[in-house]
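User: I'm new to structure prediction. If I give you an amino acid sequence, what do you actually give back? Let's try with this one:
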Amino acid sequence: MSAAGTVITDSFYSQALDATRYMRIYLPEGYSTSSEYYPVIYFLHGGGSNHNSYSNLYYHLDTLIANGHIEPVIMVKPDASAPPYYGSCYTNSALYGNFEDYIVYDLIAYIETTYRVIPSRNRRTVMGHSMGGSGALKLAFKHPDIYRAVADHSGLVDYSVMLQLYVPLILAENGGTAPYTYSPSAGVFTGVAFTLCGAFSPDTTDPPLYVDFILDDQGNVDSTIYELWRQHDTPFLAHQLAP
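Assistant: Good question. You get back a string of structure tokens that encode the predicted 3D arrangement of the chain. For your 243 residues, that looks like this:
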């Protein structure tokens, strides 16, 4: 069996970002001819992507709905790309802008006043891939009154473990010998680190990179910077939740 949902591009002005942002929206078969209200999934893209990515999701939604595995649902894929690095990390940042507020408040308010979605926490889900997966966990754990469910696909969930794995790779990308001068173009692992720094330890007074980097010139994790990162980490946020 198959269904034929409709995919559209929309945009709106976000007060949190003081900018117009775009999104792709999947509307299930029958949306245009019914008066039904639908649950909604907010899908957050990964680093280096935008709202146009992950187009294969529409086929899977069509199939799952047609085969009765899920009920008809609206999916919203907002653009959270942000220069100069791989993306916003769905975080309020002095460098990137207030992307958490954009997703949690502005986007939901726009969708629920423009489309026939059920305006209830119990019918609102957030999920994502990679940067979007960890972003989904962060938003869901910080705003349990907003989202009923969350799914993380390949997103970072513990920055202490991530650093154990990434630090040797970052050092190798940046010459392999101290003292280190880190470049965001040195390689993918360094690029990810700069992206996270832009979200969690931005420094808009320090051009041209505008971050306080997680490693010092000897290749050691800077404990002060790591503490800033930890405030956004899944284990830390999970411990803030009531059982």
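You can read the tokens as a compact description of the fold. Here is one thing that stands out. The radius of gyration is 19 Å.
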